[in-house]
DNA sequence: CACCCGTGGCT
DNA sequence: TAGCCAAGGGT
């Protein structure tokens, strides 16, 4: 299925394209700190750039170092998270800041292995921060990279639902030997996936590697693999948890249970969601049936 | 490994 | 319009 394009050809085309097409994002600027890059990577997990940027700016202004965030309450992190979604990420970011302050002298650890040990940091984020913030030569594989390589190298419209061994090998083998080049390669491949080789309507006419792309050359055959799992929303716990947390974010004083009850007529689900929010450390129960965002420093 | 976890814009 | 989808991680 492969077009026989050499790694060097791909590198050259993609890097040249990135040099002129890259977005000017604040966490990509040379003066951005490792902490700024770290925060951006966590915020960007499953959340589009346009929604992240204003919140990121606010966080950087308010908490310019890990110690600044660690010194504040986890509840303030959750409040400042706003509507980015998956608010447990705010809690983990706060916990990571505490870990950096306690175990890393207030700095972002520089190696992939140390980063992986931090809360909220998985395979992707560890590799991304290690290379984007510290120049370590890593293999960065996110949803964009997976889709671009599925098309360009393998000739398939979409990557499999979850990463395969073969896929990771393909990505690793394409990483340039030079660390500085590898760093730009990773961000460029992600940018290509975000701006040109998008999931819905790829702009192949604007693609720097269209003539080298196995999927393009094969006539852009439709995806045949297993269906992707749709995400239900209406009536789910996630929806109600979101509504409950939004009410708590909006209030700077404890919220009585009665106010939360108005958000759903389903008492069973309401209690389940409230309990799970407390268990997650996103909500702190107070005496008298009142609730607030967590003020204690020990939330998970 | 399958499932859960928010939110909103785009096709 | 109703899905589909987004720089994933934790359990």
Helical amount among residues, as a percent range? 40-55%
Strand line-up across the major sheet: 1-3-2
CATH C-level class of the domain at 8-134 is Mainly Alpha
CATH architecture grouping of the domain at 8-134? Orthogonal Bundle
Looking at CATH, the homologous superfamily of the domain at 8-134 is Hypothetical protein, domain 2
Which class do the helix and strand fractions yield?
A: mainly alpha
Radius of gyration: 22 Å
Average of per-residue pLDDT values: 95
* Overall shape: globular
SSE pattern, N- to C-terminal: HHHHHHHHHHHHHEHHEE
- The total of beta strands comes to 3
Beta-strand residue fraction: under 5%
Q: Count of helical segments?
A: 15
Q: Low-confidence parts, pLDDT < 50 over ≥5 residues?
A: none
Q: How does the major sheet shape up?
A: 3 strands, antiparallel
Family: Belongs to the Nth/MutY family.
Catalytic activity: Hydrolyzes free adenine bases from 7,8-dihydro-8-oxoguanine:adenine mismatched double-stranded DNA, leaving an apurinic site
Domain HhH-GPD: 43-195
Keywords: 4Fe-4S, DNA damage, DNA repair, Glycosidase, Hydrolase, Iron, Iron-sulfur, Metal-binding
């Amino acid at each position: 299925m492969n077009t026989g394009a050499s790694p060097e050809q791909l590198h050259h085309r993609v890097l040249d394209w990135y040099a002129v097409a890259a977005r000017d994002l604040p966490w990509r600027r040379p003066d951005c700190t490792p902490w700024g890059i770290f925060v951006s990577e966590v915020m960007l997990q499953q959340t589009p750039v346009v929604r992240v940027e204003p919140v990121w700016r606010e966080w950087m202004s308010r908490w310019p170092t890990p110690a600044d965030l660690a010194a504040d309450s986890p509840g303030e992190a959750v409040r400042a998270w706003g509507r980015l979604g998956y608010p447990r990420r705010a809690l983990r970011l706060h916990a990571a800041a505490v870990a950096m302050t306690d175990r890393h002298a207030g700095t972002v650890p520089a190696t992939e292995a140390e980063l992986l040990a931090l809360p909220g940091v998985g395979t992707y984020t560890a590799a991304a921060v290690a290379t984007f913030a510290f120049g370590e030569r890593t293999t960065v594989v996110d949803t964009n990279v997976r889709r671009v390589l599925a098309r360009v190298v393998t000739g398939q419209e979409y990557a499999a639902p979850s990463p395969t061994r073969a896929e990771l090998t393909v990505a690793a083998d394409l990483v340039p030997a030079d660390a500085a080049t590898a760093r730009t390669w990773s961000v460029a491949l992600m940018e290509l996936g975000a701006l040109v080789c998008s999931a819905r309507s790829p702009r192949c006419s604007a693609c720097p590697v269209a003539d080298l792309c196995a999927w393009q050359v094969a006539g852009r055959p439709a995806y045949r693999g297993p269906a992707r799992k749709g995400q239900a929303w209406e009536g789910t716990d996630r929806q109600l948890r979101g509504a409950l947390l939004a009410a708590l974010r909006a209030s700077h004083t404890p919220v009585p249970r009665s106010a939360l009850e108005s958000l759903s007529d389903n008492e069973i689900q309401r209690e389940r969601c409230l309990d799970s929010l407390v268990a997650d450390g996103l909500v702190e129960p107070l005496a008298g049936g009142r609730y607030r965002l967590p003020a204690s420093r020990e939330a998970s």
